[in-house]
Amino acid sequence: MYYPPTFPREKELTIKKLFLALLDKDICSRKALNLSIREFLAQEKISDFYPKLWHLNFIYKRHFEDNLKERPAFLDLTRVVSVRSLSGIVPLSVFTLPKNSCPFHCVYCALVNGAPKSYFPDEAAVMRAIRVKYDPYGQTFDRLVQFYLSGHPIDKMEVIIQGGTFSFYQKDYREWFIRRVFDGLNSEIEKIIKTGQLAFSKSKDLEEAKTRNETARSRLAGLTIETRPDFIDEEEVFFLRRLGVTRVELGVQSTDEEVLRLINRGHQVEVVAQATKLLRDAGFKITYHLMPGLPGSSFEKDIQVLRQIFTDDRFKPDNIKFYPTQVVKNSPLANWYQVGKYKPIDEAYLWHLTGVFTQEIVSPWVRINRLARDLTRNDLVVETFPSNFRQNLEKHLKEKNIKCPCIRCREIRDKKITGQPKNNIIPYSASDGQEFFIEIVDEAYKLLGYLRLRIPSFVIQKKNFFITPLDHSSIIRELHVLGPLTPLSQKGIIQHQGLGKVLIEKAIEITKNFNLRKISVIAAVGTREYYRKLGFEMRQPGEYMTKVIA
């Protein structure tokens, strides 16, 4: 009989009794729900246990769903971290094995037994991976169960593979890993939770796993990997496409040559530019990892690097993750700090840096995914700024009435639409090609959806590309309709209302202006059915969806 790994089976009868007690109450707020739970525990004289909210969802699915005419209203109050699904998809992180996670030895990077390089065993996602011995199926399956029981729709998942340099692992391991992630997504989560009958999903090969996911309940809406710029070449791009990867996070850290040399990075800035161009022309979304405060840097250098990244056409990533340099245990930088060779940046430094960045540098087509890394005090040699720095910054910007123009700060989320939505097109040049950020915004400039269209460099230069289906074609690198994640079978406030089709029609119009007869898309496996309905067909090699528009 299957139970979620952290469910307290010995308390099942108690939680069932609690559930029945809650049915008789008029509960309309989270506060009232918690008060009712405490009253029940006091009445039952239970002081050594407090149920998690997802326990109630599990008990409902396992024992009461078939016997109740309608779903109890109080279960709507059990959703945990509702912001997780307010961007239209749910992110799901999985970790590769610690062994052979990266061949390099950057000075800021920790090497700890039991975790991939640069990660720690006490990080939440790593702890989940350790619990299943880094098995990709177990990580995916367990996380889907947790999302589902926490009240999140699990129809559209963005899988993020972490754990060092993905491209350094052997190809057969990487292919097996992703196949098993797909197997996890293809599992019948609802049925397993309800019946307790565990039926493992196992495909014979990667192709079968991907084909099944095209119509699965939990579909892959995006697949992200982390790697280094110097591991990106044509062969790697081909392989990543065969795996189904749609986004690549590059460990850039800095574009200052002296800083890269001091931190023992192992490549020069031009390698970043080359990798960016190759990935962008192949349609990938690109995220840069950036580390202000590195050895050899300064406030002026950090600002210069940020300005260069968003003004130099060789760069201009779609997303960035700030990982301000921290002195972590088991790193060469820890030794530098202890002997006075390195002085870490503090919170005041970051306040100033992010203030200039958000007000003077950020473009509306970029998404700031992170502003600090979540590390525990146990992982740090010295704590120089709080892990909730982003929340503090957002509060500060709101108090000062400063609006960050990045995608994350403009997402509509669960807010009401103001006025009549409209199209807005932001063109910009990047990597010798032409980009068009096509967005749908309301009158308050809140973002409802967007599309990234590229006229590749090889099209503009009238050259052939090594991925033949993309010759003489524009490419949609990203299509994202925002708002609360809505199950595929339903119409939401924003999702499934036809906004995606509107954005694609605008992309086709722009494509025709360049006298091109094809438009392609780097479609995630779980989105292929959607594009087929719009007239796109699969093209090999590269598994791109292409539509003739002549």
Keywords:
single chain; alpha/beta; 7-stranded mixed beta sheet; 14 strands; 17% strand
What does this structure look like?
Among the domains are: 9-78, no CATH class; 85-227, no CATH class; 422-548, Gcn5-related N-acetyltransferase (GNAT) (Aminopeptidase), CATH 3.40.630. The mean pLDDT is 93. The protein is globular, with a radius of gyration of 24 Å. α1 (12-23) packs across α3, α3 (53-64) packs across α7 and α6 packs parallel to α8. 35% of the residues lie in helices and 17% in strands. It contains 19 helices and 14 strands. With 550 residues, it is an alpha/beta fold. It has a seven-stranded parallel beta sheet with strand order 1-2-3-4-5-6-7.
Number of helices: 19
Rg result = 24 Å
Helix content: 25-40%
Q: Report on the biggest sheet.
A: 7 strands, parallel
Strand proportion, as a percent range, falls in: 15-25%
Mean pLDDT: 93
| Global geometry | globular
Unreliable segments (pLDDT under 50, ≥5 consecutive)? none
Number of strands: 14
Which structural class best describes the helix and strand composition? alpha/beta
Distance between the termini: 57 Å
Q: Give the strand order of the largest sheet, numbering strands 1, 2, ... along the chain.
A: 1-2-3-4-5-6-7
